[in-house]
Amino acid sequence: MNEKSTQAVHDGSGEFNPSKATDGKFENQPLTTIIILTATSLMVMFLIALDRTIITTAIPGITDEFKSLSDIGWYGSGYLMTSGAFQLMFGKIYSMYSVKLVLLLSILLFEIGSAICGAAPSSIAFVIGRAVAGVGAAGILAGSVVTITRIVPLQKQPAMNGLLGAIFGIAIILGPLIGGALTSHTTWRWCFYINLPIGGVVMVVRAFTIKVPNSKTVSLSWNEKLWQLDPIGALCLVPGVICLWTDGRVIALLSVMSILLIAFVVVQICLPKTAMAPPRLFRQRSIGAGLWQMAFVGAGMYVIIYYLPVWFQAIKGDSAVKAGIKLLPLMVSMLKLGYYTPVRLIGFVIMSIGAGLFVLLEVNIGHAKWIGYQVVFGFGMGLSMHN
């Protein structure tokens, strides 16, 4: 790294601010680089989004093989919780180290997690694989955004981000269908094996074709870089989000989770210079409200899309493919509608009504009802989530 690239970057208070660190004016990239970047970004974004829902129609097959009905919640949560818990940490890591290297390692971690899931001999091993893949997915998601800001011209970044958002939505919708097809015609293990060749191709292409400019960093020692990563905040946040609550330890572990999350907030306020979640962001009501909104909407969404296919297969006797098809009314009705607040508030109400309607599901329920319930819930969620 040259001398210029190691100059300290400070804000007005004299503290190091990675978010303001740049390498200056990046030269325009050739068209081939943009095309390769776009194609590989779409491929990995499709994979990490697909992994969120592909398992929904495969869960009955997994529980039958492992005899682990009580672990259903962890098959989805293991991936989602680690993916969420490590997002902030990866944001700091990308500002301190090589963007290209960290992204490649994230893809490798995602691939390792997928391989563990595909070859899992037990339910515990499967959950561990999901958790490992979730950590990799967190790095991929953050790295894709960072790479775009470093390579794609500013005026084209909104279009690129929109394209990534579109492929993310498409993957989530197709997930139950692809998972159902693979489970019915091959084995549920292929829901994870399919990640390996695609991710491998992306790693090879990215490693040899794309150079990502890195942020300027100060000449810090490893110890100083470690503190910039906010280890105290991480130790509070990660266990607080992913701590296991099962059996008679539920109340105790939920209490520990609450204490750790409160401690995380306190650490972020007391140590703003190295905070993973700078308090100044939450002083903007729109950001704070948006985060709470996504937390509650996301929680409601994943409960339904993980357990409804199980109901179709276990209660209605449908195949995995048919369960995926029957989930389409919900997935399609989630599509972006393009309205803004106060429509968002109406969306919360409609989503709540739809969630309540699922209580009325019974063995002999008619098609019109279970389709209608999904449409109401999905429509409300779409209004709430995309505005």
TrEMBL record:
Q: Which GO terms describe its molecular function?
A: transmembrane transporter activity
- Write down the membrane topology: Multi-pass membrane protein
Q: Which UniProt keywords apply?
A: Membrane, Transmembrane, Transmembrane helix
- Transmembrane ranges, per UniProt, are 30-50, 72-90, 102-121, 127-148, 160-181, 187-205, 251-271, 291-312, 337-361
GO terms for CC? plasma membrane
Query: Which residue numbers delimit the Major facilitator superfamily (MFS) profile domain?
Result: 37-387
The family database entries (Gene3D superfamilies) matched by this protein are listed as: MFS general substrate transporter like domains
The answer, when asked if Thylakoid is one of the entry's keywords, is no
User: Region Disordered: what ranges?
Assistant: 1-24
Q: Where in the cell is it found?
A: Membrane
CDD domains for the chain: MFS_Azr1_MDR_like (cd17502)
Q: Which InterPro entries match?
A: MFS, MFS_dom, MFS_trans_sf
Q: Name one Pfam family in it.
A: MFS_1
Q: Which domain of life is it from?
A: Eukaryota
Q: What is the name listed in the Swiss-Prot or TrEMBL entry for this protein?
A: MFS general substrate transporter
Q: Which organism is it from?
A: Cucurbitaria berberidis CBS 394.84
